[in-house]
Design a protein that fits this description.
8 helices, BEACH_Domain, BEACH_dom_sf, NBEL1 protein, WD repeat, BEACH_dom
Length: 233
């Protein structure tokens, strides 16, 4: 990887495999980073560092505003002394999160319905828009989902090809159907193409190791994790 003999995508897949993550276990599903922060521009300029997410920070504090809340949560003392300190009560990768992203394709649709006691979750909680999902991450320090590999190769998961009735949003009454894409993506295929290009960009190649330190490396636990605001319950 250092010698550029394999792609960033291949390297991440291999790291996930070595870490025991697998497509066969929703609780240990491969995890990939959010790499962009620009989901509103008409054009995506991969030569501009400002369009990329800061890969040195956990997703929960990519928005500086959330750091204070996250630190306060860590400094809360459990009166019974039973619970270890943590910055985040949820996780960047879990079974519900995988089903959330893949709700439009089987077998994940059926698994989601089973998880929700036999019906689809309410529409406002569905994965319905990539820009809105990113905005929610920026606004809410309790939502810390990273991505799954499908965001870089599988356009079908962004389309409601099976015609599932996913309900409508409460405020706008908008029907949840295909996933709403960033303005710079003209189709699911175009989104995947540009997103993959972003993953292999010079900026990400130069900074990917910082995210790997958080997820697979020395910032997972211990003093380095505390300093990086990267301690999970």
């Amino acid at each position: 990887w250092v010698n550029r003999e394999i792609s960033n995508f291949d390297y991440l897949i291999q790291l996930n495999t070595m870490a025991g993550r697998t497509y066969n276990d929703l609780a240990q599903y491969p995890v990939f980073p959010w790499i962009l922060r620009d989901y509103t521009s008409e054009e995506l300029d991969l030569n501009n560092p400002a369009v990329f997410r800061d890969l040195s920070k956990p997703i929960g504090v990519v928005n500086e505003k959330n750091a204070k809340t996250v630190k306060e949560k860590y400094n809360f003392e459990d009166p019974l002394g039973m619970i270890d300190k943590f910055h985040y009560g949820t996780h960047y990768s879990n079974a519900a999160g995988v089903m959330h992203y893949l709700i439009r394709v089987e077998p994940f649709t059926t698994l989601h319905i089973q998880l929700q006691s036999g019906r689809f979750d309410c529409a406002d909680r569905q994965f319905h828009s990539i820009p809105a999902t990113w905005q929610a991450l920026m606004d809410n320090p309790n939502d810390v989902k990273e991505l799954i590999p499908e965001f870089f190769y599988f356009p079908e998961f962004l389309e409601n090809q099976n015609g599932f009735n996913l309900g409508q949003l409460q405020m706008s009454k908008e029907v949840v159907n295909d996933v709403v894409l960033p303005k710079w993506a003209h189709s699911p295929e175009d989104f995947i193409y540009k997103h993959r290009k972003a993953l292999e960009s010079e900026y990400v190649s130069a900074h990917l190791h910082e995210w790997i330190d958080l997820i697979f490396g020395y910032k997972q636990r211990g003093p380095a994790a505390v300093e990086a605001l990267n301690v999970f319950y």
